[in-house]
């Protein structure tokens, strides 16, 4: 029996290593595996850990080709081949771009047909909620007189800072609001709505403890927004309805049509919402969801 240190640390299930395995003891880790673990863990923590661009780990550290070691995460794989900084493989980021809105039905008589949108991004594994009101251009900040058959690209914007997080899981939510009779064309009021929504995201983030909690967090966000808006002087806007879509599997995003490959009116997109309606007026939202391959980690 070879009982040298070399046999213990480098050979699979031989010598004392086999005896340790037979007795249910923990196998000694090789020096190279230890170096791989330290290098990958350092890179992972430097990139923000599970709240950073890699997200949660989806595998343990495993031996791979040519003496390398590999560990997989939501946002890509880290490979250790001996260099102090591991290589990032299959790294992806997701950009969520709002492309436009189309009106399918007018509100009833005497109701305002000016509208705006609050889009919210839920990242359940990072307990992050980000929100943006649109349009938010500093003028009237609404879609004026948006009637059946009309669409608008006003307010096009990339919503999410994709460089900070893995592409999935993610929930995208759109809350369409109808302007009330008071102050519907007051830009300062719309800016206050944007600030109120941002503040409400904090309450939703506290409730976001995993994928199963998205509905709870969305409800917390909706309640916080409604409360915040009710406190804004001169605002009597009402919610038409809210739509939410959750992507858990990266393949759901990969299998979307190419960016800008679909079109309705002046809007180019690759993903659309369900019909958002209160039984009176109705709308659809249009987005481009874009996966971008990355090769570098933040913080390394």
Please tell me the CATH architecture of the largest domain by its name: Sandwich
Considering DSSP H and I runs of 4 or more, what fraction of the residues is helical? 10-25%
Q: Point out poorly predicted stretches.
A: 1-26
Count up the helices.
6
CATH class descriptor name of the largest domain: Mainly Beta
* Head-to-tail CA distance between termini: 44 Å
Shape: elongated
> What is the CATH topology classification name of the largest domain?
Immunoglobulin-like
Number of domains: 2
**What's the average pLDDT?**
82
In terms of DSSP E residues, the strand content is: 25-35%
Radius of gyration: 25 Å
Q: What's the order of the H and E elements?
A: HHHEEEEEEEEEEHHEHEEEEE
Largest sheet: 6 strands, antiparallel
Strand pairing plus helix content: what structural class? Answer: alpha+beta
Q: How many strands in all?
A: 16
Fold and architecture overview:
The radius of gyration is 25 Å and the shape is elongated. By secondary structure, it is an alpha+beta fold. Strands 5, 8, 9, 14, 15 and 16 form a six-stranded antiparallel sheet that branches. A four-stranded antiparallel sheet has the order 1-2-3-4. The two termini are 44 Å apart. The model is unreliable at 1-26 (pLDDT under 50). The chain contains six helices and 16 strands. It folds into two domains: 5-89, no CATH class; 95-292, Immunoglobulin-like, CATH 2.60.40.
